[in-house]
Amino acid sequence: MISFKGAQYPKDVTLFAVFFYVRYGVSYRDLEEIMAERGVSVDHTTLNLWVTWYSGAIAEAARHRKGPCDRSWKMDETYIKVKGTWVYLYRAADKYGKILDFMLPERRNKPAAARFFARLLEVNGLPRKVVIDKSGANTAGIKAIDKMLAGFGRPISIEMVRRKYLNNIAEQDHRFIKRRTRPMLGFKSFVSAPATLDGIEVAHMIRKGQITPGVCPFRQFAELAA
């Protein structure tokens, strides 16, 4: 449960603002006006803080509450600008396009790939197959985790397929993230960037019906904070 103790505004008001920002292509100043039209006077800097404070915790709840996924995985990265520098957002989906997980490390290397793959296993279990591009870092990271699993007695290695064209599902899924982040013109810090991206990914998962299909999207988002 996410604590809203001491918050100036009701929980639903705060969560509505966070959801509206991560779901739709609005700026914080636009959202400030939208909230004012609904009788809520809140500064755009406060809205920024709400997204930074709450999105990460909501995303963590979504990771554990999402529906089951297929055991054939697609793992890929896309570029995100943080502090004027392009960095990699790691993302993974199953063969049907359901989101498995996401992570924004500061570097694209073997430790980062291994960390992300370990996160995938933590919630999604063991895959039957993992499709990646020809990134040496991703290959090395997955092999490192596979070796660790073998040390714990797993007799069969994870099948790894290095073919870029087979990763089309994961690459196409980046478009939603790009559409939402493009108007932002990059992030100013590694504090706000992961939190905001977490919220955007959760909104995307809700759109795909991975949380509670048939329930109002905002209500699904709010229930993740319960």
TrEMBL record:
The keyword DNA-binding applies. Pfam families: DDE_Tnp_IS240. Residues 64-225 form the Integrase catalytic domain. Keywords: DNA recombination, DNA-binding, Transposition. SUPFAM superfamilies: Ribonuclease H-like. PANTHER family: BLL1675 PROTEIN. Involved in the transposition of the insertion sequence. This is IS6 family transposase. It comes from Ruegeria haliotis.
